[in-house]
Design brief:
heterodimer; A: alpha+beta; Rossmann fold; OB fold (Dihydrolipoamide Acetyltransferase, E2P); six-stranded mixed β-sheet; 21 strands; B: about 75% helix
Chain lengths: ~350, ~260
């Protein structure tokens, strides 16, 4: 298990706290310049923060208090660099043997077996420049594993390959990681990639970790609007908690929505709230109303867009001027209901889909 | 096709050198003494070999230090190292001569150790050649070290290799074209050095008289034939060594990058 907290003010402000269990893949997500790679380099020992602590498998790698700081050679780190950093003067086999030779207890690992693991059999005598981007990534992973690492670090490993190859590599990494009982950290700016591959996502912005949790939690229940913004939450609005019939409700314009998660809130409190576009429920025309407890809202479709089977509807809201909501529907649902721009539709913002945020 | 052309090129170069040497009648005596001053030739080659070999560790160390360092005074240090490139050899020779004087620190220490003056000795010449050819050794190595992406060094560390092993297994092989260029350039440059040799070494046969000095002497003595022969030999050696560098570096850049 990896546990770390890092703080520094210069050259880049850093205030990072995260943990990753063995066998778990943690995605460190944030815009470029957020400090993701810096965190990775700190774990590898290639640079160090002013204060903090890094502990992996109960061994302290870095501790500013006791001035402990292990060199990269002493930390068993498998690092996959953004551009793979394969040695251009060595063949694929030699690249892997390079890392095997440096570590005595390679547990019978051979270059051949490692190449087999990453589906690169028969390409051992090629030079890196003779390989495609995807093949280079596989070799880089094999070389990282040759060290029998106690943690695997992947720095934007998919950014240097095309989209088609990327999809293939996602599946390969997902298969490969099943056998690995070490913490794995994936740095990426692509939220979909993180949500697809990771068990845990940690959102980082301007050097500060904002929230760590499961992809589901990060995407649908961001801790605050800052996280919501980073994970591209599309329906973030502000409202007020009110008490109605001895029950806390969310007041938004003239609507009073019933709530599920309200334990941390009190009456007359101003809040931000969000609902995932995929969790807005479309009413069938023949059965428009299901009672006020389902938080019905109606409005006019002002835009409609379809991408890869998902139709995104942009609608205005009756009794709430200048407010709009986005809703994602499977394409076949949109066409079955003959949704057209200019039409009035009614939807439900179910209580369990509404997520409240204090700030 | 490319390989074929290179092969022909190499054969042609060697044959040209051989022809020049054979046609110059260097093995025969004439009325005016030796056409080729073999003693001067030996001094020149010895000086060039010793200088380039000494510059291998010195050049590597300085270039490695400069490639790693990010401090603000780096430009000044590079400028000092490059200075011999632009300075008139007589100016450099003058300062070296002053520095090698028995009253100076370096000259005094050498005098007390050996009993000889550092100036007008082969060792003094060797020392001066190292300084004179320093930019030719440092610059190519520095440029090729700087071209190595820093991630390669870090990837090696992360693979568990120490900084020394990383240097010998990653950085040195990748900087090899630069190292070879540095060696050949310092060899050729030392071979052709004149002004500094004249200032530091004078013209002592068997000690400091190099081929370039011998050529100068021949011209002054109107020994045209002798001057021509020795000049052609220096030309041939320079051409062959430089050709080897270009051929090697082109081949190397194709197989690695």
């Amino acid at each position: 298990m990896l546990k770390l907290n890092l703080q520094q003010t210069l050259p880049l402000p850093l205030d990072v706290e995260l943990e990753c269990h063995s066998g778990q893949l943690l995605a460190l997500v944030g815009p470029s310049g957020a400090g993701k790679t810096t965190v990775l380099r700190c774990i590898a020992g290639l640079q160090s923060s002013q204060t903090g602590m890094i502990e992996c498998k109960n061994k302290v790698w870095f501790d500013s208090e006791s001035s402990q700081n292990m060199a990269p050679q002493q930390r068993r780190v498998g690092m996959v660099f953004q551009n793979y950093a394969l040695f251009p003067h060595l063949t694929v086999d030699e690249n892997i043997q390079f890392a095997l030779d440096a570590n005595q207890n390679s547990n019978g690992h051979t270059a051949k077996r490692l190449l087999e693991k990453v589906n690169m059999i028969g390409l051992g005598d090629r030079y890196p420049k003779q390989l495609s981007g995807g093949q280079q990534q596989r070799v880089a992973i094999a070389r990282a594993l040759a060290r029998q690492p106690e943690i695997l670090l992947l720095d934007e490993p998919f950014s240097a390959v095309d989209k088609v190859t990327r999809r293939k590599l996602y599946l390969e990494l997902d298969t490969l990681r099943q056998d690995l009982d070490i913490p794995m950290i994936l740095v990426t700016h692509d939220l979909d990639e993180a949500a697809m591959l990771a068990d845990q996502i940690c959102v980082i912005h301007q050097g500060k970790t904002l929230q760590q949790g499961t992809p589901e939690k990060i995407l649908y229940k961001p801790r605050n609007t800052a996280v919501a913004k980073q994970v591209d939450a599309r329906n973030v609005r502000s409202g007020m908690i009110i008490e109605e019939d001895s029950e806390l409700k969310l007041k938004w314009h003239n609507y009073h929505f019933t709530l599920r998660e309200k334990a941390d809130f009190k009456s007359d409190q101003e809040v931000n709230w969000t609902i995932s576009p995929a969790k807005i429920l479309l009413h069938q025309r023949v059965r428009p109303s299901r009672g006020t407890r389902e938080n019905p809202v109606s409005g006019i479709i002002i835009n409609k867009m379809t991408l890869r089977g998902i139709t995104t509807i942009l609608m205005t809201i009756d009794q709430a001027e200048e407010e709009q909501l986005q809703m994602d529907l499977p394409e076949h649902v949109a066409s079955r209901n003959q949704l057209q721009v200019g039409e009035t539709i009614s939807v439900s913002l179910l209580a369990e889909a509404i997520h409240l945020m204090i700030d | 096709m490319q390989k074929m052309q290179e092969h022909i090129f190499c054969v042609f170069t060697l044959r040209l050198a051989l022809t020049l040497v054979l046609n110059s009648e260097i093995c025969r005596l004439n009325g005016h003494g030796y056409i080729m001053d073999w003693q001067a030739f030996e001094i020149s080659i010895k000086l060039a070999v010793l200088t380039s070999l000494s510059l291998l560790p010195i050049g590597l160390a300085i270039a490695y230090f400069l490639a790693q360092s990010r401090f603000s005074g780096r430009g000044i240090i590079e400028a000092i190292i490059t200075l011999p490139l632009v300075l008139p050899p007589t100016v450099l020779g003058y300062f070296l001569l002053v520095g090698m004087d028995n009253n100076s620190l370096v000259g005094g220490v050498f005098m007390s150790l050996t009993g000889h003056t550092l100036a007008f000795s082969f060792v003094g010449l060797w020392f001066a050649s190292i300084i004179y050819s320093l930019p030719f050794a440092v610059q190519p190595i520095l440029r090729s070290l700087e071209q190595i992406p820093p991630e390669l060094r870090e990837a090696s560390w992360c693979s568990g290799l120490s900084k020394w092993k990383t240097f010998f297994k990653v950085e040195l092989p990748l900087a090899l074209p630069g190292v070879i260029t540095a060696m050949v350039l310092s060899f050729s440059h030392t071979l052709g050095e004149f002004g500094v040799v004249l200032m530091i070494g004078g013209n002592i046969a068997g000690e400091t008289r190099t081929v370039s000095i011998a050529i100068y002497d021949s011209v002054l003595a109107f020994e045209q034939h002798q001057a021509q022969t020795m000049s052609l030999i220096l030309l041939a050696i320079a051409f062959v060594t430089i050709s080897i560098v270009y051929t090697f570096n082109r081949r190397n850049s194709r197989s690695v990058m």
